[in-house]
Amino acid sequence: MTRIDKAVLLAAGRGTRMRELTSELPKPMIEVRGKPVLQHIVEGLRDAGVRRSLIIVGYHADAVQNFFGDGSRYKIEIQYATQVVQNGTGRVVDLARNFAGDSPFVLSYGDIFVDAANYKYLLDLPDEVEAIITVRRGEDVGKGGAAFLNEQMELIDLREKPKSGEPTSPWYNAGLYAFRPSIFEFTAKLKPSPRGEYELTDAIRDLAQSGKKVQALELTGEWADVRDPEILARLNRA
Q: H or E segment at 47?
């Protein structure tokens, strides 16, 4: 078992579906219950045992860097890397190569609001497992990724936003992962998807189909992809 103490947090995007809410802020800095979503993530991972984080910034990077600084106010170390071209999550992960080194790391999209109790289950990586993908039941996989699992909760396929009539799955890709550095071998080989982006989910699928074990972890408690004003309003009413 390997204990993970590093995290990579993706906070480069604007989030155009948030409309005017992101005119001056990247989406991960939108407040849920009095704190930016990204602060919920940073504090949840810290409390679970993560001591070093790399935040990937891009759109309005200063809003993130001015807020979190070097991490000392959270009693952790925070570094930054900049995504200059918004060309997909697969290329973003490559920016974490030097930060990760030979160590495994947790990766979270910066707009995932999750019950903090889940983080600790990601930080212990079994020796035979190459990566962990988190999943949820009951979500609309047409708005995210459908994870196809076997009876041992191991990933066998991952499809981004399957359309009506295409094969589907009850398991929704929940946007929180643990990786060994081997993921970089697969992000380096990515080709653009039909929407012209380099997709992290394609690299994860290729990793699983290479014979490596990618274990799925079902998240418990509250979870939300804070992708639009309606979801944000629902969270803030709760």
A: helix 37-48
Token pair 């190569």 is at which residue? 97
Which sign, positive or negative, has the C-alpha torsion 210, 211, 213, 214? Answer: positive
CB neighbours of 206 closer than 8 A, spacing ≥ 6? 186, 189
d(CA 162, CA 124): 31
**51 DSSP assignment:** -
Q: Is the pLDDT of residue 132 over 90?
A: yes
**What's the CA gap between 130 and 139, in Å, rounded?**
26
Q: First CA to last CA across the chain, in angstroms?
A: 37
Instruction: Please give the radius of gyration of the chain, using alpha carbons only, rounded to the nearest integer.
Output: 17
The model carries a pTM of 0.95
Q: Nearest CA to 145 among 90, 199, 85?
A: 199
